[in-house]
Structures are given as structure tokens and as C-alpha cells.
Amino acid sequence: MLRNKSFVKRTRKGNIVRTVKEHYLRDDIACGYEKCTSKVCENARKEAEDQGKTTANGINLAAPLSASPRTAVEWGPHYLVPDTNAFVNQIDIFERPIINNVIVLSTVLDELRGLSMAVYNRVRVIIKDSERRWFVFSNEHHRETFIDRQTSESPNDRNDRAIRVAVKWLCKHLVGSSITPILVTNDENNIRKACEDGVNVCRMEGFLKIYSEHPELFDMMGSVSINDRNSADPGWSGYPEYLTPVQIQAGLNSGMFLQGTLQIAPYNYLEGSIYTEFPDGKERRVLILGRKDMNRAIQGDKVVIQILPKSSWRVAPSTALVDEDEDIVPDVSEKSGTTDTTSIVPDTGANSEESRKRARLSQKSTANKAQEKKSGVTIVGSDSSEQDEKSQPEPEPIKPADVGDDLSEGEPTGRVVGIVRRNWRSYCVFLDPNFMHKGVRTSNAPVSVSVLAMDRRIPKIKIRTRQLDILSGQRFVVAVDSWPKESRYPLGHFVRALGDAGDKATETEVLLLEHDVPFQPFTQNVRSDLPAEGEKWIFNPVRDQVSSGRRRDLRDINVCSIDPPGCTDIDDALHAVELPNGNFQVGVHIADVTNFVKPNTAMDKEAAYRSTTVYLVDRRIDMLPELLGTNLCSLRANVDRLAFSCIWELDPEANIVDVTFHKSVIHSKASLTYEAAQNRIDDPSMTDAITNSIRSLNMLAKKLRKRRMEAGALTLSSPEVRFRLENDSQDPVDVEMKALKETNALVEEFMLLANISVAGKIYQHFPDSALLRRHPEPPAQNFDNLQHALKPLGIQLETGSSLALAQSLDRAVLPSDPYFNNLLRILTTRCMMQAQYFCSGTCTPEEFRHYGLATQIYTHFTSPIRRYADVMVHRLLHASIDRDAVYGSELTDKTKMNEQCEILNHRHRMAQQAGRSSVELYTNLFFKGKTVEEFGYVTQVLQNGFSVLIPSYGIEGIVYTASKDNTKDPAALEYEKESHTLTSPDKKSTIGLFNRVQVILKVDDKPVSANVSSMRRKLSLQLVEPQIPRLSISFDELKALRAAASATKQNEQDEEKIVEAVTKHPEQIRNV
Amino acid sequence: MSRQELISPEGLRVDGRRANELRRISCRASVLNSADGSAYYEQGNTKVLVAVYGPREPRNRSLAQQDHATINVEFNIAPFSTSERRKRSKGDKRLLEISSFVKQTFEGAIQTAIYPRSQIDIYIHLLQHDGGTLETCINAATLALVDAGISMMDYVCACTAGFIDETPILDLNFVEESSIEVPNLTVAIMPRNGNIALLQMESKLHSSKLEDVMELAVEGCKHIHRKLDQAVLVAAKDLADKLSN
Prior knowledge:
The structure holds 2 protein chains of 2 kinds.
Chain A: E1 2-10, E2 16-24, H1 39-50, E3 71-72, E4 76-82, H2 84-94, E5 102-105, H3 106-115, H4 117-128, E6 134-137, H5 155-173, E7 180-184, H6 188-197, E8 201-202, H7 204-210, H8 216-219, H9 245-254, E9 257-261, E10 263-265, E11 268-277, E12 283-289, H10 290-294, E13 302-307, H11 332-336, H12 353-375, E14 414-421, E15 426-431, E16 447-453, E17 461-465, H13 468-471, E18 474-482, E19 491-500, H14 504-514, H15 524-527, E20 552-553, E21 559-563, E22 572-578, E23 584-591, H16 602-610, E24 614-615, E25 620-621, H17 626-632, E26 640-650, E27 656-673, H18 674-682, H19 689-711, E28 721-725, E29 732-737, H20 742-765, E30 771-774, H21 784-790, H22 802-811, H23 820-831, E31 836-839, H24 868-881, H25 889-892, H26 894-927, E32 931-942, E33 945-950, E34 955-960, E35 974-976, E36 981-983, E37 990-991, E38 996-1003, H27 1012-1015, E39 1019-1025, H28 1035-1051, H29 1056-1071
Parallel strand pairs in A: 4-7, 5-6, 7-8, 20-27, 21-27
Antiparallel strand pairs in A: 1-2, 3-4, 9-13, 10-11, 11-12, 13-14, 15-16, 15-18, 16-17, 18-19, 22-23, 23-26, 24-25, 26-27, 28-29, 30-31, 32-33, 32-38, 33-34, 35-36, 36-37, 38-39
Chain B: E1 25-29, E2 37-43, E3 46-56, E4 70-77, H1 93-109, E5 119-128, H2 133-148, E6 157-164, E7 167-170, H3 174-178, E8 184-190, E9 195-202, H4 207-244
Parallel strand pairs in B: 4-5
Antiparallel strand pairs in B: 1-2, 2-3, 3-5, 6-7, 6-8, 8-9
Helix pairs in contact in B: 1-2, 2-4
């Protein structure tokens, strides 16, 4: 049977067209009940069986619904049929494994896809899990459950009716089985109509009663109504209403509004900004300051903004920690949290003239809008509409087109007028200390509490809970449901508990969750894609296509691998042989991961999802199952391993004469550490083949490196440390800087060479869909602050090209301070853009350039065990060299490739941050209970503080020069714009970039639940030197601390070394 | 924005068909009186009208071939065939491409040698567009040629097939066709001996998958052949009825 579906749609150009699509109705759609006796369902089951679509424990994928589902007193055995809103609001509950035997209607899925792709994907994941016994009933294509929209019906009503009709049909269909399908909805109208139709229906709460043994489910209920939660919040006038989508669209088209992703400053959750393209085509930043102007937008939301009048633009430094633009409404809960020293937002009630004016303005414009709505005039595009009708003239908002590059009037600020797309996720949180320990609670009634997110860019979230006593001192996950305009904070619900704060396992899980790192063990599905032989897998010339000539046998070559100590996932091995003509044959052999990971298998999909292996201080979260990563793919010594080889002929000056690529099989003769390799080079008595090969490699690497440096490659620096962990508890006992040896550079040089050669090859064969990596040139203004600070030192950075920069960095040496050059390189690194993966078809060849490496084209080929990008590059390279290679759209489809690139970039960034957070976590554990005095360098000057990098631990922290209550107490140091320094009021001492300071480091040793700062696990720094009144620690205190430090020294022998180092340093500094 | 799901995990395509199902086909021969042969053909929402004139004297003497007939194909898309009205000029390369494909296909199928010094005109008009233009044109032209009583080796039946998410799918509609990553293969066969009259593909498909996709398309062609056969029978019966009256 055929129906035509017709709907009206807006095309990309903005024209409105009617689209007509065919819509076939079928009568072969089964109901999903595993014992259904109707002919259609039996046929469907049989067909699925024939195709092998059954699971190991006898679930037929075409009919997964169990014959004995959960029984409730009221309904007996039943299946749940949730409606769309039930999924949107309660997805966290549905994700609980106890909820199974659910029928998902295709109407609901279609609606979900329109509402929230995120929820849709989560539902799809559940459906895929056959153990859950969820079933999709394609009611939209079922002849008896399809309904036409009636003329008086809205699309929503039609869908609600379609859902009811489907449930009713299922009811009738399942009548013989004594199982009832129950519609789960919270929509009053729907419930009433369903009752009229005689459909079994229940509310979310009602359905949770069935699971009364799981009381935590009630806490997980998404908030639907806010009336009961928005407990009295005096003085809160509510947020302005968002504009309607039509108004937003019109505003965007007319150039009145701008669109962008909201980024919140990491140190101040009331300072947001968006980078967006202005009508003149340039990208600029617009600040969005204060809660009111952010108007319920959260970090990462895609928002539409309006530029505020010039009078409210900000003149202060862009990197200010504290901003005076706080809401005029004092924030009660924040004020009481006076122990909180790190929450940076000043809580002054900020009654500055500025903010009062602003608040008035925003209230007024809301009023305007309300009026305009009534009169039917849209605010959008009509300049006069913002004009105040009353006597008081308010400046109009500015058209984005009028914003120029001249920032003398301050930086433009804006106000959120609408949300394009929310980017809410689950957040790791802890209970607001104000809600803890409020006496013994007697009833079990839910209470409303607010929670603070680990990510300080996220506002407080209000939740309702019955487990207050359990939650205090714990970390847990909440999801945000809504943010009604009456509520100051977003409303959310509890999802699950993670464990006690301060506990290493909990904190590690928190940081993995916060960085969106998938860390669950590999599923059975993924593991089933591993080679059946498991550990016993050995090379087989026939299966591995050596006999057929598609893989070269290189087992007789003297190959060795050089890696850091303790490395188990060996990606790469090398060899070099001198040829009779005086040239060298050099080979880089990379683990042949793609021989085991075939496209579109479960393992491949999982690897693509994970994208990278994440290295934490104490553990590694693998991208590929252990068997492959550390065994079958790992190029260990003395076993036959499959590899992908890149073999050059280099002349003695290290120029490439020829390059070839092969799939190969190698037999590594030795796996060395950097140190061992270095020792072999240095020891003249060693003359075996491996050592000679390493020497040749070293000789060539030096030449390659020299040439690369001449071309303008940058040597940048980042403070990297390694922890020495106690064996049993994995507690950190020592910190050391990572050391670099000549052999590190050797390996790196050949990896770069391989990557560059491969990049050229795949680009030649796949000009549209090669996966490459580029590093854009940083704009000169990124260096402004740095240049400014360097001026007094007589140093000038040439930022014109990477070569000029590299050379000026080499010249920038202070004889008085050997660490200065390193520090400068660290700071220069921070001015750089992020390198990123991209698909060659999406950029012009000029944009391919890798700035940092000074090469025209670059990709990642050498670490397929730990990076998915390399896996993709391996496939591309294989397709380029082997005509018989089988590949599908995954290598040629530009769109797919581009999407994967975005995932890779995101995961890559997150993995780096997770690694850093892990170091931070361990630093804090290391310093817990200790007080350490150290010297450091100022790396950033902010309005009310400065950050200090401590080279010996590679950590960075902030020293605050103004306390939170800075209105009562003038700051010890004032910011000066011209010199970009902080100066004391008596002009005696100043703090500027590169200054050397003495600080005391400590981690609060108080009970973790006591205050916010320890819940957020922050290291605190206090200034010792230079002495600044009211800021630096007093000498008496210092003495006491030093005494305490030496006491610890006697007590704990383990830490002797560090404390010694710490106590030794001060003298050195004073001598300098 | 995520891409549209062209085939759901439940195995249904956007319009509710399964992977190996054709759209609904309805067709009729002898719809125009003035033409020697004509046909109206619908496949889903794609609708075409074909008129065949000839064999007749070539309009231009220079075109006349001594030993066989020339075939002239004109293809036109009605401006109202899509919801956005769009007029195409006569020299539109897309139109010329389709007409030349149709021409080449039928040059092999029509027994041109028995009509020397003559011309056969095939005028194809696309009335409504919903994907699969070339296949519908060929099928409709076959029906019209049969209706005109022109000697052919066999019917020429065409069908498209594509490849989405590791599954070969039959008879792409407009939505499926316009998604770039879906390869779009059009096969025309002469069903009696299975000879391939046309094989044309857009986008890329790995050669190892080609066989499966072609097999499916050929299956579709055979099904279309039965439909065309029925239409011819109906037309013949009509004619017989008229003659006997």
C-alpha cells in the first residue's frame, strides 16, 4: 500500500518548498514478541533465524521481547512503550540495565532524532544491546498503525495519536499472550485521551513504583516541572525570554545577531566569550559577561547574541580573572561559602555603576520585547525597536557590521538572545558544602540541593535527592534537564554515584568522564574480532600473503626498536644498511595494525570511537584490545611480526633518492631503550650489525635534523614530568622531569621522515580524501603579550615565519638565567595554534602546511597501535600501493572522512588534557600534607593575580593578588595596562612576565568535604619573594613552615631528596 | 548535523521499502493518438511520457544512412517536475547526456538494418522527478517502441541499484540518489539472453562489491520485464478488441 507523505520544508537558500515523498505501508512488520503466533511474526522470526540473527542465549533479534517480562501488580506482565518526552527527560533511567522489554515506536525515534541526536544515539545503543530485549516497532510503516494527519491536528498531536494507535494495536495483537503493552508518558492530554481509548497508560512515577527496590531511580527522574523546586530566591528577577526561532533567523539574516559557541573562561564562570565571523569576514571575539547576559547558556552551547552598546564594552585586560560585571543580585549561597578561596568570582554584589546600568538595560529590553510581542512588531532588524520610548535614552545595541578592529573603546560585549543548540552532557559534581550536614534528617522526603561541577565553567546545578547523607563528600554524576527562566540555576537530576572524593580511583574516573574518554572494558563483540588463535598467533606465509607476493619477507634484515623504558606497545622499528653504491637503505617498520583491524568490524568501530590511547600517570586506556596492542602488533624482539615498511634509499647527505612502501614481515633483533641505544652508540667496542645500523641512523638523523632546522622547524618545549610510583599503592613518591637523549631525536627524525613520505604518497592517490595533519600559522597578535614582556629584556621575537621565529628563539638567551630560553619556548608554545587532522578535500593545498615542523605536507603513520588516524592512513597507503586492496567508502568518502577527523581532533585534545589532569591529580596527591617552598617564573599576568610555573615540578598555579572581597580591601597589587604588570600601590614592587619569584606550595589538608577548593583539588600558592605587604607570607609564618618541613624530613626518609632540594634552592635564588 | 539515515537498523529504507524492493510500477502503452507508439510509465513518483514516431523519412537528408535507420532521441524535463520550478535550456548537458545514453542503448536493440534511409524519433518527457530518471526513460521508451511496432531484438529493461552501509539496495529514489556517498549503478539488460545494453555508474564503488550490486539490479530488471510484458499484453488485447469490433 502506498501513501504519499507531503511536507513543507525550507531549502538551504531559504525558499519554502513542498516535498513529496513516497511512504510505503507494509503488512510484514512483526510485533517483536518472541512467542507470537501470528503468521507475520512467525515468518519474520524464521527469516531472522535463517540469516543467523540470533544471539548465543537464544534471543531472536527480530523478536527479542521476552515471553516472561517483569510483572507489576497493576498490569501483570507488561512491555513498556515510552513516548518521546519520556526518553528525552528520563534517558538516564532507561539506560539502567534493569529496564528491559521495551518497545520503541518508530514515531518516537523519528521525533527523537528531530529533538536531540544525543538522546537518539543513546537509545540506539540500548536497542543494539540484545540482552536488554528492546525492540523497534516500525509503526509508521505498518499498514494498520499508520495514520494520516487530520486537518485540525498539529504534527505533535498526530504523533501522539500515532503512538496511542500503535499501543492499542499491540494490545489487541498480544491479547492471547496475557502481556500488556503500557504507554509511558507524562503528557496530561495524552494520558486523558489514552484512557478514553482504553489504552493502558502510566506516568513515569507510576512506572518507577514497579521498580520500588531501586529507590535511586527516583533521584534520577528528570525534572519536568519547576514549580516545586524553585524555592524562594528573593531578589531573583528571572532571565529574559529567548527570542523565537523566526526572530533569531531574521536577526541573523539581517546581520543584527551573531552566532557562535559559548566558551567560558576557565577561571571565571561568569566570563564567557564567542569567536565568530563578523559581517566583514573577520573572526573576532565577543565577550559575554555575567549571568544575565549569558542567559542560561552553558559552556559549549551554540548561541545567538546581540552586540551591546559601546558603553558596556570592556576596557580591562582580556585575561582578567575577576570581572566587576557580576549580577546585581547578591548570590546568597556563594557569599556564605567564605572558606572558598579559589572560586574566583567576586561576590561583592558588585554594585558598580556599570553593572547597575547594564542590568537595567537588560530588564528594559525584556520589557520592550514583551511589548513588541503584543503589538506584533518584531524586535529584529528594526533599529528603532530597541529605542526607549520613555524619556531616558538608552544606547542602542550595535550592529555587528559597525564593530571594527580598533579596540580602544574596549572589547565588544554581547548578550545571548537565543540558543541554537544545547551542548549539555552529564557533569561530575559534588554537593555544595552549604547543603552538607544540616543536622539529622528524619524523613525520607526528597530535598532540593545545589551541586557544584568539577568543571568550573559550569554553573551550579539544582537537583532533588533522597540520599543527601550518602552524597555528601562523594563525587557523582548529574545530568541537566532544563533551565527555566525563573530559576537562577539549571535543574538536573542525579545519575549515579562515583565514590568518595579524594579517593584515587574515584578521581581518576572523574577525570576520564570529564574529558569524555571512553574507558569501559572492551565488549564481547569487540573481542570476538580478535584473531581466533589469541596469544598463540604466529606468522603464516600463506595466510599472510607472503607466498602470493603481496607481503615482503624482510626477516633477514637487522631491525631493532628503540623506545622509552617499560614500553610494551612497540609501534615502530628501524634499520639502516650501507649499500654498495655508498648510499644507505633505511627502513622504518610500523606495526601492521590494519592486518588485524578490518574496516567496519566492531573492533574497528570501537577504535574509531576511542580514536586514541590515553596515557594517565598510573594507567593506560587502550584504543585496541591488549592482545593486539602489546602482543600481536607490538614489534617485539625475536618474534616474527607483520609490519608496514617504508624503505628509503638515502645518499650520505640524507637526501631521499628513492622511497618504497611494502607490507612486510620482520624479525626484530633487539628492542632497546633510548638509554641502551645511546650506550651502544657511545661504546666504541660494539661493532655488531645492530650497533652499526644505529650509528648510521644517528649520522643520517643528525643531517636530517639540521636540514629541518634550517627550513624553520621549531623546537618548542613543554614542562613534562614523570612520577615515580610506589609499587603497591601506586601512590606517587617522586617527581622527575622527563630527560631527552640523542636517540630520542634519532627515532623522532625518522618517524617524521616516514610521516612526510607517506603523506605525499596518499595525497597523490587520494587527492580528495587523504587524512593529513596540518598546523596553521599563528596570527601575530597571539604573541602581543609575550613581545611586550620581552621588550625590557631587549629581546624581539620575529614571528613572520617559522624560520624567523626559530632563529630568534635560538638567539633569546639570558646569560644570567639558563632556564630562560626554555621558559620562553614554553610560553611560545602557548601562542601556537593547535595542530589538527583534516581531510585533504576540505582545504586548499596552501593550507596543508605544518608550521611547527616546517613541512608542506604531513600526516600520522607511525603509531597505529595508539592512534586511529594512523590506522586510517595505513589503509589509505595500502590502497595506494596494492591495486588488489579491497576498500570501501570509508577511504573515499570526503564527508565521512571529515567527520572522523573531527572526532580524532576532539579525542586527541581530550586525551592530552586528561593526561595533564592526571599529572595534576598526582601532583596534588604528592603535595598532600606537605608544604614546599620553590622558585618559579611568572607566566601570565592577570588582573587580580598571576600564574607561576615551577620548573622543578613542571606545575603551574595562580597567586591571587586580590581576595574575593576586594571591594573592602584594596588589592595588594594593581594591574597596569601599559606595562602589562602588577604594581603595588607604593610603586615599590612590580610583578611582570618572566619574573622569578619564590612561592610556597601546599594542598589543603582539611577534610575533603569541608570546602570547595579541596573538592576541586586545587594546589594553592603563596608568595614568599619578592616581599609585598599584605600578599606575601610573613617571615614568622615562613619560619614556622620551614621548621615543619624539616620535621617532615626527619619523619619520612622517602622524601628526603625532595625536601632537600627544596630547602637548598632559596639560597641559590638569592645569589642570582 | 548528522546525515540522514538512509536505511534503518530495522532494515527499512526512508520510504519504508526493504533493501531489495522496487518502487511501485504502473505503465500503459498507446496513450497518445498522434504518435506511432507511445507509453506512460510510473516508477514510484517518477513519471515519464514517451512518444515514438517512425520509421519515417529523415527530416534532414544528410542524416539518412544507406544501410540502417538513424535513431533520434530527445529528452526533456518538465519545468514543473520538481517542487521548485526550474526551466532547462535545450542545450542542458544533463538532458543531452540522458538522451545520448538512451540512444546508444536502443541502437543496439532496434533492428535498424531493416529500416534503411529512415529515422526513428523517440521523444521522452519527464513529468515528475523522484530519482531513477535514466531507468524510467529506458523502460518507457521500450514500451513505446513496442507499441509503435518497431522490430527489436528484445525488450530493454533498466534498473538502478546502489550500496548503502554494506547492503546493496535496489531502485534508488531521489533522497537516496542525491546522497553523494551512495554509488548509483544503472543497468539495462535484454532479458531473454541477459545481454547488457547499458551499464553506467555514478560515484565510487569498490570492484569487489560491484558483482553483488549488479546482480541485484539485474534481478530488478527481470521484474520490470514482467511488468512491461503485462502492459504490452493489455495493449495488444485492447487492439484486438478494437479490431474484432
